[in-house]
Request: fold
Amino acid sequence: MLASWAIPDEIVARGEVPPWSHDPDTFAMDDTTDAGDPVFELARELLPLEGGTVLDVGCGGGRSSLPLYPRARRIIGVDSNRAMLDRFAASAESLGVEHREIEGRWPDVAVEAEMAGTPLERVDVVVCHHVFFNVPDLEPFVVALTAVARLGVVTVLPRRHPMSAWNAAWKHFWNIDRPLGPTSDDAVAVLHALGIEPEVIELPRPAVSRHAEDPAALVRSARRRLCLTSDRDDELAEWLRVDPPDFMREVVVLRWPGGLDHEGP
Ligand SMILES: C[S@@+](CC[C@H](N)C(=O)[O-])C[C@H]1O[C@@H](n2cnc3c(N)ncnc32)[C@H](O)[C@@H]1O
Reply:
C-alpha cells in the first residue's frame, strides 16, 4: 500500500528537490513544543520517577523526545538524516540532557550493532513519532523497537498518510489521484499479527512548529511535495490561500509493553 504512493519518475525529475525530503527546521524544538502535551504524558507514565532512559527512533530535531527531560535523564536519538541528528544534538546540549546520536536506518542500526557484538543499550522507553508511514517493512521495525525497550514503546502516527494533506493539490496541479491508504488501522493490524495488543489512543494533533506555519515556508514545502518549480510560487501561494492543505487534526498513539520487562526495571 505504501508503494502506491510512489510519484512517477518523470514528475520527480521536474521538481527542484526530492519530494519526500524533510526540512529540519520543521522538526526542530521551538517555543511551540508543549512538554505537557498528552503524547508526552503517555511516555512519562512508563518512565521511572528518576533517571529514565529513552530511545527516539526517527528523532528528527528532537521534538518527539527532548520534552521528556528532566524525567528522562538520557535520551538517544536515531535518525538516517545527519542534519536532523545535528539539530537533535544541539537542542539536547542546550537543555543539558545526557544524549547520544546514532546515524542510520532503523532497524538496520540495531541489527548491525547486534551482529558486531555490541548490541544497542536497552532503554526504559522507546518513542517513535511520525515515522511509521516511512516504513514499508513494519514488522522487523516494530520487533526491534520492542526488543530495545524495557518498559514500553510509544509511537505516534496520523490516521492517514501524512502526504494525504496534498491529495487535492496533486489533482489540481498534476491531475493525479493519490491513494487513500494505508491508515493507522493497517499499522494496528501489523501489530496484532505480531501478537502485540497496543493501547490505541486518539489525541488532538500537538502544535506544529512556528516554521511550518510561516506562509513562505508553506509555499516552499508545497513546491517540494508537489514537484513544482519556483516559477509557480505565485500560483501556488494563491492555491494555498483558497485550498489550504488538509493537515491532520488528530494523531493516533499506539502504546505497548517493552520486550524485556521480565528482567525488571
Ligand atoms: C516526519 S520526521 C519526524 C521527526 C520527529 N520524530 C518528530 O516527530 O518531530 C521523520 C524522521 O524519521 C527519520 N526516519 C525515517 N525513516 C527512518 C528509519 N527507518 N530509520 C531512522 N530514521 C528514519 C527521517 O529522517 C526524519 O527525520
